[in-house]
């Protein structure tokens, strides 16, 4: 059974996400190193795995297959989620305590390498990794373990809701995460093209990164 799972369609969609989560766990261990530098390694390794497994992602057609309406929809939804994300931070909308978040400054001077790696990782690597895992895999798997046989357009509202709830728990801002999960999952369900939620997710994270750097609101990282 393990061999069939390793060679099956789930692994390419689970492995990048699993590596990302493993690094989060490692960064939480109290050691005498600057854990911020784990992030470039984390996203670099995830990106390398995604590239290596790229031929296994048949749900990702060529980007040029997207028409203008899909691009516009993705940008609009991504923008709306970003606006909501920085506003839905009341105490009851949060889980745990983020503390100071990811602060890329050294003695009040911005560390450009850390800042750029954080923005690029969050905007380019994380959306692809998370949408492959949460929307393409988890959301469809809830409806049917043979998830590749499930058309995203036919995904049930139950699967959309359950996958969004679990996605929300992954985030400190759980309520904003729930809204984001429903938005991205809804895009996949409406358009049938995984690139649309990937782009929307990238827009959200990219705008958030620029906003965090501009305002110094590191807790959102």
Write the H/E string, N to C. Answer: HHHHEEHHHH
Low-confidence stretches: none
User: How many domains, in number, for the residues?
Assistant: 1
Cα distance spanning the termini = 39 Å
Largest sheet, in brief, is: 2 strands, antiparallel
Q: How many separate helices?
A: 8
Mean pLDDT value: 93
Taken as a percent bin, the fraction of beta residues is: under 5%
Q: What is the molecular shape?
A: globular
User: Order of strands across the biggest sheet?
Assistant: 1-2
Task: Please give the number of β-strands.
Answer: 2
Structural class estimated from helices and strands: mainly alpha
Helix content: 55-70%
Cα gyration radius (Å): 17 Å
Please give a handful of descriptors for the protein shown:
single chain; mainly alpha; two-stranded antiparallel ribbon
How would you characterize the overall build of this protein?
- The protein has one domain.
- The protein is 64% helix and 2% strand.
- The chain has eight helices and two strands, in the order H-H-H-H-E-E-H-H-H-H.
- Strand 1 and strand 2 form a beta hairpin.
- Helix 3 crosses helix 5.
- The longest helix is centred in the middle third of the chain and has 32 residues.
- 32% of the residues are buried.
- The model has no long low-confidence stretch (mean pLDDT 93).
């Amino acid at each position: 059974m393990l061999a069939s799972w390793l060679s099956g369609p789930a692994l390419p969609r689970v492995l990048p996400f699993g590596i990302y989560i493993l690094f989060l766990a490692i960064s939480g261990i109290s050691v005498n190193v600057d854990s911020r530098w784990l992030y470039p390694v984390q996203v670099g390794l995830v990106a390398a795995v995604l590239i290596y497994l790229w031929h296994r992602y048949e749900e990702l057609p060529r980007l040029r297959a997207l028409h203008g309406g899909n691009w516009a929809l993705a940008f609009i939804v991504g923008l709306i989620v970003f606006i909501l994300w920085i506003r839905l931070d009341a105490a009851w909308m949060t889980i745990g305590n983020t503390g100071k978040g990811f602060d890329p400054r050294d003695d009040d001077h911005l560390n450009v390498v850390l800042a750029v790696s954080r923005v690029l990782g969050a905007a380019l690597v994380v959306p692809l990794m998370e949408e492959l895992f949460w929307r393409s895999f988890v959301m469809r798997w809830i409806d049917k373990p043979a998830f590749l046989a499930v058309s995203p357009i036919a995904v049930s509202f139950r699967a959309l809701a359950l996958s969004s709830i679990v996605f929300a728990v992954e985030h400190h801002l759980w309520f904003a995460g729930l809204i984001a999960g429903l938005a991205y999952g809804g895009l996949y369900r409406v358009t049938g093209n995984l690139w649309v939620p990937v782009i929307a997710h990238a827009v959200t994270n990219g705008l958030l990164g620029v906003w965090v750097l501009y305002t110094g609101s590191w807790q959102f990282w």
